[in-house]
Each structure stands twice: as C-alpha cells, then as structure tokens.
Write a structure and sequence with these properties.
The chain has three domains: 2-210, P-loop containing nucleotide triphosphate hydrolases (Rossmann fold, 3-Layer(aba) Sandwich); 216-294, Helicase, Ruva Protein, domain 3, CATH 1.10.8; 298-368, Arc Repressor Mutant, subunit A (Orthogonal Bundle), CATH 1.10.10.10. The chain has helices spanning 2-14, 31-44, 61-77, 81-101, 125-142, 159-174, 191-198, 202-205, 216-229, 236-246, 250-263, 272-297, 300-310, 319-325, 335-343, 362-368; strands at 21-24, 48-54, 146-152, 181-187, 207-210, 233-234, 269-270, 317-318, 347-348, 354-357. The protein has 16 helices and ten strands. It has 373 residues and is of the alpha/beta class. The two termini are 42 Å apart.
Length: 373
C-alpha cells in the first residue's frame, strides 16, 4: 500500500507516469480489496481520474476499456466548459478507437464527436491503445490530473489484448516525459507468466508484487484488534484455536471473526467454546460459498485430478504423481482436464510440471468431505 501511495504522489507531483504494477496472489487473499482501495483513494482526490474494470474470459479487454474510458470522460466533461475543451481531442481519439474495437457500441458525449483521423484508428491494437492513452493523458496533464488504470483478474484477458497492453505501456514508459498514467493489474499467481507469454519482455516491464497468506502473528492482530477496539478480549486458548483454524487465509479469517463475534456468550469476552462454535459456522459458510461451488462446477474427470492433488496437502502436485494416482498412463492423458481446470481458475501451474489450487484450503475441503481418490 505504501509503495503505491508513494508512486501516486510522485506522479501527480511530477506530471509523469511511473512503472506499471502487477499484484498477484491466490484467491481470497485481498487483491481486489486492495485494488478497490487504490481506486477509492484516487477518486477522492481531485488530482486523479480512476478507471477500474475486471477482465472477463472470452470478452475483449479493448472494448471493455473503451466503455470504461467513455464513462469516465463523460463524468469529467460534466465539470464544465474548460474540461470539455481540453478533453474534446481525447474524446475524438476514443471515438476512433471505439470504431475499431467495438463498432456496434454507442458512445454519446451529449454533443457530436467525430473520429480523430490518423489517431487510434490503425487497426493495430497495440498502436491504437498507446495513441489513445497518450491523447487522454495529454488532456489530463492540461487539467493537472493523472490517470489510474486498474484491471482486476487480468489473466482472463485474451492473449492478443494482453500483448497490446504490454506494448502500449512499454512504449508510453519509454517516452522522455512519460504520460501521467499509473497502471495496476491484479490476478492469480500465474499472471506474471501469462503476461510474459503474451510479450516476452513483460517480465521486465512490470513491478511485480505478491500477496501471500497471513503469518500467525498477522492473523492474531487481524482477529484481536477489531474486538479489542470494542472492549472485547479473547481467552488465550480461544485465540490460539481461531488462529490455527485460519491457516493464514484472509478470506477465512474474515468469516471466522464474524461468526466468533456473533457466537460469544459473554458480551466482553470470547471463550474457547465461543471460538469453536464460530469456527464451525465459518467453515460451513466458506464450504458452501467457496469450495462446494467450485467442486460442483468441475466435471468428473476434473474432480479426479483435484482429489489426487488434495493428497499433497497444500503443496504443489507433480503431474507425474497425478498421472499415477489417477491410474493414467501418460501425462497427455491429463492434458484436457489440466487445461480446463486452469482455464476455469481452479488451479494454476506454479512451475513447469506442477499444479496447485488457486483457493487455499481446497485440499482440506476435499479431505473433510471424504472425496477419496
């Protein structure tokens, strides 16, 4: 958080952009919450224009971006004639871009906007995206503001769109006076590899950051600080049991804290019995709302792979081991299930020849439900 805050201050202070940032991590560790916080802070400031969208599998990222930019530019133009005058050229560039990536869309600004000939209309997405962002950034610089472009679930975007995004951000960053743009993308642990597959130099382009599971001490603070602020204390055994049940998973910590709080028998104290009741209620909620839905969406063949993975108790699973456990003969026999599980976001490849669950605790859920291999 402090790193991004510092970068944002530097950008509005200098009027020049900085290195794009990518935050990756497992599901439920707080990536989206963090991204939303950056967007909220930007929107509360008069010095930033913030655009946030979520990449969707099978949908053009470029068309999503065009729609999001149009919505935000309309807001800016509603601020008065000065904003309209300074954003008019950028609006024309957006019209040119939109006609290439989303020709069926309607983008009204409340007045006639003609395409800007020769800008963002080449049909080469990486060129058009760069020119569009440069035109918008130039207008925002005139308005003494900067652009925050935030994209969640970035690994879901089409490879061609990711390549265009990589190239555009790289070219913008190479300018002697980079446009006042800060890009932040979030996604699964596979995102750095996905970006590098789209464009080889992506591994050097971004400032990569990873969100990990909580340590036990961080979990203790997360559970005890909110209750302490309200005059409620934990018995030592109760807090120990809650921390152990969370296993560092922020999503479960949130559910655990909520249910333990509601289960306390004495207003100002949380006992070990309160903790046990709350933990079970939290586990039931997370099972039904997170794990069960993923299990039910998987095909029988995919479930066989997931059951085999659960035997590794949270450690990366070797493809060779999974082949043996599922009774297959060759690694290619698991190719379809592996590919579908990755595409559906159930697993990712932390290294060549290995698979891991994207959701912490999925192995424990499978074991507890008795889905034996």
């Amino acid at each position: 958080m402090s790193v991004v805050d510092s970068v944002m201050r530097d950008i509005v202070g200098s009027g020049e952009g900085d290195r794009p940032i990518v935050v990756s991590g497992l599901r439920g560790v707080g990536k989206t919450v963090l991204l939303n916080e950056f967007v909220r802070r930007a929107r509360e400031s008069r010095r930033w224009v913030a655009i946030k969208l979520e990449a969707v599998n099978g949908r053009s990222l470029a068309s999503q971006l065009a729609q999001a930019l149009h919505t935000e530019m309309r807001k800016q133009m509603s601020l008065g004639d000065v904003a309209v005058a300074k954003l008019r050229r950028a609006a024309s560039a957006l019209r040119s871009f939109q006609l290439k990536v989303d020709p069926t869309g309607t983008y009204s600004f409340g007045f006639d906007v003609q395409p800007l000939a020769g800008v963002a209309d080449s049909g080469q997405l990486e060129v058009d995206l760069r020119e569009l962002l440069e035109e918008l950034a130039a207008a925002l610089r005139e308005l003494d503001t900067a652009l925050l472009l935030a994209i969640d679930e970035l690994q879901e975007a089409p490879a061609a769109d990711l390549n265009a995004l990589n190239v555009a951000l790289h070219d913008i960053g190479q300018d002697a006076h980079p446009a006042p743009i800060l890009f932040i993308g979030t996604g699964l642990p596979s995102l750095p590899a996905v970006l590098a597959d789209a464009t080889s130099y992506a591994e050097r382009l971004y400032d990569y950051r990873a969100l990990d599971l909580l340590t036990d001490s961080e979990t203790r603070v997360a559970l005890s600080a909110p209750t302490g602020d309200r005059g409620v204390s934990w018995d030592v055994a109760a807090l120990d049991e809650a921390v152990a049940s969370v296993s560092g998973y922020p999503y479960f910590a949130q559910a655990c804290g909520k249910h333990v709080w509601a289960s306390r028998a004495v207003a100002d104290r949380i006992s070990a019995e309160d903790a046990r009741i709350g933990i079970e209620l939290a586990r039931d909620e997370v099972d039904r709302g997170l794990y069960q839905s993923r299990w039910e969406r998987a095909t029988p063949a995919q479930r066989e792979v997931m059951k085999a993975m659960a035997l590794d108790a949270g450690r990366p699973s070797s493809i060779q081991d999974l082949v043996a456990r599922t009774g297959k003969k060759r690694t290619s026999d698991l190719s379809v299930s592996r590919r579908e599980l990755i595409r559906n976001g159930h697993v990712y490849a932390p290294d060549r020849g290995y698979l891991s669950f994207t959701v912490p605790g999925m192995d424990d859920y499978i074991e507890r439900r008795g889905f034996d291999i």
